[in-house]
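Researcher: Sequence of Acyl-CoA dehydrogenase follows. Predict its structure.
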Amino acid sequence: MDFTFTDEQETVAKVARQLFEHRATPEHLTELEADEVRYDAALWSELAAADLLGIALPESVGGTGGGFLELGVLLSEVGYSVAPVPVYATLVLGADAIARHGDSDLQKRYLPGVVDGGTLLTAALAEPGSSDPTAPRTTARPDGDVWRLTGTKELVPAAQLAAAIVVSARTKDGPGLFVVETGDGVRVMPATTTNGEPFADVELTDAVGRRLSENAEGDIGTGIVEALYTRALVGLCAMQIGVTERALKLAASYTSEREQFGRPIGSFQAVQQRLADAFIDTEAIRWTTWHAAWLIAEGRPAEREAAIAKFWAAEAGARVTASAQQVHGGMGIDVTYPLSRYFLWAKQIELALGSASQQLARLGRTYAEGLTP
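Model: Prediction complete. Tokens:
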């Protein structure tokens, strides 16, 4: 296990940060947030021009042949700048699943468009009234060469922007994944969310879907839906690394400049202790996430490690951003101040696809199964 980034991975981080710092300024984000959808199409095109949208896709579809670690590095930079682009939805939830499980026709249909920035994708895992994204209630039945899907999905990232959605559904043989194009039989209803990112609820009524296979390396024994859920969790954690890192940086900068009683408030012991705890929490998120991401990149089981990482991303992420907010005093709750976005993003990530307590419950069931004679 070696968490040292390669030169190529460092380059991904450097190029992404330069693009995001240039485009995703606080002023520009405020302008975007006044629009109907928080999405910067010009920035998305720049990511494509910089060859960042194909970093984890095979060369056969125009990608650069990288893997999940490269994708995690990019997601961390998305979180660091709270960038208004659907990298998580398109690359982790949609393109990665199609690249790993789709046949050549599906790959050629969608992935070149992802690489050049012309196609947005996502995946629908969460369902109303269900706390287990790996046990879908949405149904899929065969209909000739295609499948017909019926059910409701909630809080689907960037669904109102996506050309197609990877949908989890149950068949008589068990859970599966299906690619459904937005259109007939698919009703997309934009939802209001904590951090203002584009999400939508999706209703499927006999929607046409094409099934993805379960033969990807590393999914043996876990199932295709569980594998996507694991990768989705780690993708969220990678973004949380960037969110907490930037929140901590804003707090450090503010407390070193803001003076009280003739000296910076960062010199007060209570503030130092609070930020030291936040630093330790940020490091815990970082290392549990990269451990899980490394396992995924190596094609090894990572379900337990993903749950551990998501627990830290949820529990510690909330603590870090709350501490950053509190050391800012009244400035910390000013919605026009950049820190507010990081607090809201951390809260959104905390609850997405299972809170800290839900991850503990999953871990508890895993250990119980392991102890069964």
